[in-house]
Every structure is written in C-alpha cells, then in structure tokens.
Amino acid sequence: MSVSTATVLARPTTTEEKFLTTEQAATLLQLSPITLRKWRKVKLGPDFCALADRTVRYRESAIEEWLERRTIYTQHSVRVHLVSLLERDGLI
After folding, report:
1. Among 5, 75, 76, 91, which is 20 to 30 Å from 41 by CA?
2. Helices (H) then strands (E): counts for the chain
3. For 1-92, where are the alpha helices, taking DSSP H only?
C-alpha cells in the first residue's frame, strides 16, 4: 500500500505537547513501570509512541484521554454535571 492510499490515523501534535517516559507515565498514573510495559505487550493502557527499537514515549494528552475513557460516572456526578450545563446555558 502506498503512502498516498494509506489511511493515516495520527493526530497533529503541537510544540507544547509533552512526551513522558515509561517511568514518568507510571508515576503520573501511580502505577509501576513494569505494569505499563506489560500492558504495552498486550495492547492495554494508554496509547504510546514507539520512537525506536526500545524507546517508548507517552503523550500526556493520550494519558488524559485514556483516563477520561475509563472514568465511570456515578449517577450523582452525572446529575451535577447536567445541572451545571443547564445553568450555564440559562435553561434553569
């Protein structure tokens, strides 16, 4: 498949994008670096960039998005959020 016909699923990055090592990402997530390494092998955890044979980096924004996707909202928090949106829009 040529580059012109390939679908590229990459999002643009900005110069402000922060890239984290496995150790830094693990600290941010309060996990062991070993856990992140195991997750990578089985395609779990946040998205990562393989820059070279043994060089891996995590976009800080990818970690935040992964955490957001894994957040389970309680009924109370959903209600509070909806009320705040309605108030913001002047509907209540």
Report:
1. 5
2. 4, 3
3. 22-29, 33-41, 60-70, 75-88
